[in-house]
Amino acid sequence: MSQATAQEVLRGTAPQVDTRRRGRPNVPGIVGTIFTLIMAAVWIFPLYWAVVTSLKRENDVLANPPNWLPIPLTFNAYSAVLTESGLLRWYWNSVLTGVIITFVVVLLCMMCAYAISQLSFPGKNLLFWTLLAGFMIPGQALTVPQFILMNDLNAVNTYAGIILPQLIAPAVIIIYKQFFDAVPGELHDAAVIDGAGEGRILFNIFLPINWGITWALAIVTFIGAWNAFFWPFIITSSESMMTIPVGITQVNDAFGVQYARTMAVAVLAGLPVVVAYLAFQNRVTEGIMATAGLKG
Amino acid sequence: MWRDALLLITPFTLLYLIFFIFPTFRVFQLSFMDVPLIGGGGEYIGFENYRELMSDSRFWSSVRHTFYFVLLTVIPNTAIGLLFALMVVRLNRLKSIVLAAFFIPFMLPVSVVTLIWQWLLDPTFGILQNVFTFFTGQPVAVFGDPNWAMPSVAFVTVWWTVGFNMLLFIAGLQGIGKDYYEAASLDGATGFQIFRFVTWPLLWPVTALVLTLQLIAQLKIFDQVYLLTGGGPFNSTIVTLQYMYNEAFQNFNGGYSSAIGVALFVIILIASLIQIRFLRTGGAR
């Protein structure tokens, strides 16, 4: 069965499932559209309510009946959480670890996939099958030995501790391998005849051909690193080393039932990934579908 | 020419060996030991950890809670994902905005999701308590109620992750050729018949993929449950991964915790093998 590509899905240029008849008014269609819009509104309501709550005064948050709009509007909650919690520090930790993880994952996996796809070397099949077999092992089951290893390396509560296990992304290798396999073989042969080294062929020929999937994988890897909860939660116990998803679980204890502030924290923590999604919708979709096993 | 290849694979392979393959062997080794989480030492005790595990009622109840969560999420999340995909693909101008509304929650970190839902369902001030008051006459502290806790976490999980399933289904639906639908409507098939005899069988490979991904993901449940209920009330929502976490990081039993990790690995392996076998025969009709 052929799949629509990610771009087609989002641009709506893929074949439409169109069962409308022309001429008379399509009552079931209109009812369906209205139902769809209601469901979409229901689905997005929690986010609307989080934003509205974060823009209210702390006392107005608890008003009964609730006020559906943030009137009077205030940014007090935002200035409070930015100055009184560790939020900026967690932001910095998340940005730093996320950028390093993204860069290293994409670079190393690209190199490894290129070698598997284009070159021959001893142990190639062993490496490839080990990577595939690795998908069977849930990373969380390895928590104890990974933690002991990090403790032995003195990496608990450090950036290295957060980053290192997150650099293992065999899925990125498998995806790159598929894309490199699709590059015509003559390109590689011609470059070798011209005397180019493998490193140059990768970065000057294969990478430029595959910028699209590279951006998709980079964005998805960054969002994944930004959102990662379990491992950073295990490896960081001091507040100053926490990433955003781990750190913000602390603010409920700090602020108590100050829901305007809690929601301001939630909005600020979620904003970067939502903006990244809205800005790069096609790439995010492509990356997610590729990692799910559907070629994007 | 091996030299170039080795240079290219070495950085990743080293990381993979040190931080994945080595811990994989080590978790099995530790599971045969009585060893503290930190401080080293420890001694081999054979299958003692596994023997204890088999008769450990807290372990089995954590497995039951995990499967209860699987039951509450896998099929609803797949069905609603398919429903949303069917709703989205027929839209034209509104398509991208409706798609974003369903999908954006999936982009959020888990703790943002749980903070928002703790507020929405706050027993005293939560806006959704109006719904509970309407139906049951009083607010319900859902995450502190043994009957409501797990279904509520499952509900939040569906809200959070259904967009992912929807995306896969949209791709699947748009891969079905238009001719199938034209032929079906020329034959006078109704909307439901078209879905039943055209869409559903042709979509089955995607449905099977979604079900498989869902099952594996939900067996690894920890984050949302831990953040929303902490395993309570009265330990009624402690899932297997949380039991492993508690044993390691509260009781510092490195060996026993590793045995739970191995057990989780085996459970996931068996469950996915059974499901793959079942799904392979399920669609081709």
From TrEMBL, chain A:
It holds the Pfam family BPD_transp_1. One of its GO terms (cellular component) is plasma membrane. It is found in: Cell membrane. Residues 1-21 are annotated as: Disordered. Keywords: Cell membrane, Membrane, Transmembrane, Transmembrane helix, Transport. One of its GO terms (biological process) is transmembrane transport. The chain crosses the membrane at residues 30-51, 90-114, 126-150, 156-176, 209-234, 259-280. It is a multi-pass membrane protein. SUPFAM superfamilies: MetI-like. This is Glycerol-3-phosphate ABC transporter, permease protein UgpE. It comes from uncultured Truepera sp.
